[in-house]
Amino acid sequence: MAIQVKVLERPIRQTSYVRAMLKGMAITFKHLTNPHKVTWQYPEQKWDLSPRWRGTHRMLTDENGKAKCVACGLCPQICPANCIKLVPGEDEEGNRYPLVYEIDEFRCIFCGYCQEVCPEEAIHVGRHYENSEYSRAGFVYDLERLMAQTHPVCEMWDPADPRGE
Amino acid sequence: MADAQQVSLTIEGRQVNVPAGTSILEAAKTVGVLIPHYCYHPGLSIVGNCRMCQVEVEKMPKLAPACQTAVAEGQVVHVYADRALTARKAVLEFLLINHPLDCPICDKSGECELQDYTYREGRAVGRLQDPKRFNPAEDFGGDVQYVTNRCILCTRCVRFMDEVAQDTVLNVSERGDRAVIGKFEGKDLTHPWAANIIDLCPVGALLSKDFLNKSRAWELDRTASVCPNCTQGCNTILETRDNMVVRMRPRSNLDVNHYYLCDEGRLDYRWMNRTDRLEAPLVRRGDRLAATAWDDALRAAALHLNGKRAFVLASPMLSNESLWVLSRIMKHGGGAGGFRVRREPEAPLPGVPDLARRAERAANVRAAELFGFVKSDMPLAGMQEGDVLIVADHEVAAADAPALAKASAVIVIGTTMPELVSNAMVALPSTNVAEEDGTFTNLRGRVQQYRQARAAPGMSRPVWWSGGDLLVFLGERAGYYIASEAFAALAAQQPEFAGMSYDSLGFRGQVLAGQPVAAGGAAR
């Protein structure tokens, strides 16, 4: 014997979709003309980064275009993720200079300690977020690449001005 | 020391008992209180010119320099009294007037006493507004570079050259704030022990040119070792960075080298980092040597040795354990052994009794002779026709080539493949002094242990390990897996080593049984 299913008989004004659809269309048309927009038009329109944003690194250079780094070894020492490789050496004038300076941006946790510890204000975390590469190896930034970056750098937290005002 | 009168005093609330005549500074060290100091060094005379070690002693009207004040019965010393701290803070401020703030590029940074004490007791911020004095850096000759600006004029280097090296080269030139360490006219730091002033310097004023800008002090791993470069057996610290030995420094041992290490010894560490090493056991397959497993190679070596006389060419750079295992391989078939040792002029350090860079430039000549290897310029002369020649990390010179041809088979045990050996049947990779634990016997019969500082390359093993396994293949009782085990077996069988173990050796060493005791010198 077939199962008995109770079928409710509803009036047409309750079951018709026309009313609901018109209601939805009204909202759509309202937003089409309403200037209140939430969506960011990303590649054209970019986000304002906080002055304390910590992104991928940048090595600052002196007036001669050389890296400010003196290979003191404090950033690899303080780095909690152990992502900085530094081999010290001498340049042509006998000054202490990094022979190898590499930051593995994949391993980096962007804590900004390297910038905070640097006595020469050479290495900085940058206000920058667009990082894409075709290979993992591309995320190991060497000295040349760090020096070639041009994005603005992070302003570290200043105890005298804790809210950055 | 038993006959010296004992004095008891209180330092920082701790009861101290020391012989009369000890300085407060030395007495404080015995209870673990380090009184800051610059000019004082236990190996040099006391001048008290840095004024850094001032402490408060009860019932004394003024602060006392701890390095120069002898202990007295019932004295109560306060190292961290307010008055003493203020005085030391002022001394540090004066020292820092002209000291540049270049710690980031200074090689001493991290092991600098000025840094340490300033961090502990100094002012956080300098008050001086005037510019700092500037003098250019100067090359002092030898391995030493003098960075004038960093000098605090403690005169340790001047006193070392005067009193210990007894070659007056350095002086304090000029007066007042222009004072610098200078060289006498026409003199240079050519003394063979001159580089010790680099270790003596409490700040970064005297730097090693060899180590300059190579590494930071905190990146180094330090291992207690023994200098393998002559028969003196100076105690050293091997410092490694990224598995590479980058520096060798003296480790104090008042029975051997006091606080010093000769220039040649300290700079001769590069061979420990060689990269052209034997890394896997090799056996001959046709006309080439093929890498194989340890057991295969040892079995092949045992087959060659079986029933034959072995002639062992053993390097005097090998440890006691290794040489002893090799001597057992040698005696297994009633064989013989020999070695050659490089000789160069001896260079004594006059200020320390019985300390010199010895003529024989190898670590373990004493033990090699003790275990029956014959020292000779032509070590292969004793080889007979048909012997199996074992070359154990020993260099093969052109003069040895005719004797090589007499061997029925050649087995190489070594860190590298000797160039002139073309007909080796088996090659077993071994470790060098930086890559194994072991002991050396110095020329006065002092047995001293050294520790492993870097990882051994590939499959290489210490000679006492591979040699012990080879003995097992030959049917003897052997087979050691840690160095102390090999040493225990050696101590049980060699009467000279009776009663010794790695624990009893410690890091000061022990003298062989039956060794005449020299007065005050190395064999004390």
Q: How would you summarize what this structure contains?
A:
The complex is a heterodimer of chains A (165) and B (524). Chain A has five helices and five strands; from the N terminus they run H-H-E-H-E-E-H-E-E-H.
Report on this model:
With 165 residues, chain A is α+β, with helices and mostly antiparallel strands. Chain A has a domain at 57-148: Alpha-Beta Plaits (2-Layer Sandwich), CATH 3.30.70.3270. In chain A, strands 2-3-5 form a three-stranded antiparallel sheet. A two-stranded antiparallel sheet of chain A has the order 1-4. The mean pLDDT of chain A is 90. In chain A, strand 2 (84-90) and strand 3 (96-104) form a beta hairpin. Chain A has helices spanning 12-15, 18-33, 74-78, 113-117, 143-148; strands spanning 57-59, 84-90, 96-104, 123-125, 140-141. Chain A is 22% helix and 15% strand. By secondary structure, chain B is of the alpha+beta class. An eight-stranded mixed sheet of chain B has the order 15-14-23-22-21-16-17-20. A five-stranded mixed sheet of chain B has the order 2-1-5-3-4, with helices on both faces. A three-stranded antiparallel sheet of chain B has the order 6-7-10. The longest helix of chain B is centred in the first third of the chain and has 14 residues, at 82-95.
Structural class of chain A: alpha+beta
Class based on secondary structure composition and strand pairing of chain B: alpha+beta
Overall 3D geometry of chain A?
A: elongated
What is the tally of helical segments of chain B? 13
